[in-house]
Amino acid sequence: MSTDGTSPSSPVPSSASRDAFKRVKRSPELPAPDAVQLRMTPIAAGGTLLWTIALVSAQLFRDELADSGREWWIACAFSGVVLGILGTAVMAVMDRRHFSRRGRDPRDSSEPSSS
């Protein structure tokens, strides 16, 4: 170690790394970021659409898939479509509940409270 507190292999003093850690360290004074409000129904519907495209494609190549022993791909794509429809329905209900509740939150309303 040299007389200025740095090691010969490191050009940065050891106290500088501790100071850098203190600057980067999470501070409790910082507010937490707001949660992202995102509707899930379009995402589930998009996934269902992709599975539907896969099912149609598998049906077009059914003979080739059967010859190569991959006919189960059709059943996989069909399962994806069925589960996607169920998931889209569930997401539609959850989105409706979530976004309608947000409008009725007393903290969000601008009406004066009667006391």
Task: Name some characteristics of this structure.
mainly alpha; 115 residues
Task: Please write out the topology.
Elements: H1 14-24, H2 41-60, H3 62-67, H4 72-103
Helix pairs in contact: 2-4
Quick recap:
The chain is mainly alpha-helical. It is 60% helix and 0% strand.
Pattern of helices and strands? HHHH
Query: Helicity range of the residues?
Result: 55-70%
Largest sheet: none
Derived from helix and strand composition plus strand pairing, the structural class reads mainly alpha
Question: Can you tell me the residue ranges where pLDDT is under 50 for at least 5 consecutive residues?
Answer: none
Could you tell me the radius of gyration in angstroms? 29 Å
What oligomeric state do these chains adopt?
A: single chain
Q: Tell me what portion of residues adopts beta-strand conformation.
A: under 5%
Tell me the total number of β-strands.
0
Euclidean distance between termini CA atoms: 71 Å
Task: Enumerate how many helices there are, as a single number.
Answer: 4
Mean pLDDT, all residues? 81
The global form is: flat
